[in-house]
Design a protein that fits this description.
241 residues, mainly alpha, 0% strand
């Protein structure tokens, strides 16, 4: 599994895709957080990273599927998946190795945004006047969101040999799970059914964590769904060779 992880992770940087993904993410969230007047932290005058944590998942909806779309689609198209399976590794080790590489790149992409926290800490009035626990919870939620999107993206890549199809399926599934369920819950009049549908979506659990309410149920939600999609990926690979 370690060799697969290293191969995939270094492959991101060898093909420049890592630099592109990191640049697109940091530029996009940076513009929304600090530059665009309607959302800028500097414009509304509060030491708060709400804009960053609102925009971040939507950027990940497109960038993570772009990372994962080739994971298994390319392997199957080139016929190298069968060769990989002949080596002394299990399907789970292959899946987890690729999954770990995407997660590592996601964490590396988020790392520079720690400067946002340091900047707000200095800009607070008085200095350091910001909700550190809420920001930490939101970062944890964003990383768990990236983990879920990565699992969905790898599953979508295992479904087809076409990378574009894999990207579209993953992006659509991520969007529906993140924002779609919340929107659908607003169309239902019955209160209990509306809440139940809302709780199925990732946005409900992400928002709870962003308010410094790091409940074990929210963490279990993300970890369980991520594990489920990884399990679906393993099943798909086992039945396609």
């Amino acid at each position: 599994m370690k060799q697969i992880f290293v191969k995939e992770f270094t492959g991101f940087f060898g093909s420049l895709i890592a630099y592109i993904v990191m640049a697109v993410f940091l530029i996009t969230v940076g513009l929304f957080t600090w530059v665009f007047p309607d959302q800028s932290v500097l414009a509304y005058g509060y030491a708060d990273l709400g804009t960053f944590f609102s925009v971040g998942p939507y950027v990940f909806i497109f960038l993570i599927p772009a990372l994962t779309m080739r994971m298994f689609a390319e392997e199957r198209k080139m016929g190298t998946l069968e060769l990989l399976l002949t080596r002394p590794v299990t399907v789970w080790q292959i899946v987890l190795g690729k999954y770990g590489a995407v997660l590592a790149l996601g964490a590396l992409t988020l790392l520079p945004t720690g400067l946002y926290y340091l900047a707000l800490y200095q800009l607070g009035n008085p200095k350091g006047n910001l909700d550190s626990s809420g920001i930490l919870g939101a970062y944890m939620g964003l990383m768990l969101m990236a983990a879920l999107f990565s699992a969905i993206g790898i599953w979508a890549s295992a479904l087809t040999t076409n990378q574009i199809v894999a990207f579209l399926v993953a992006a659509f599934a991520c969007f529906v799970l993140y924002a779609g369920m919340d929107s659908l819950s607003g169309l239902i009049q019955a209160g209990s059914w509306s809440l139940n549908l809302k709780e199925v979506g990732a946005l409900y659990h992400y928002e709870a964590m962003s308010q410094a309410l790091v409940d074990s149920r929210d963490v279990i939600y993300f970890l369980s769904l991520s594990s489920l999609f990884l399990f679906f990926t393993v099943l798909r690979i086992q039945h396609s060779v």
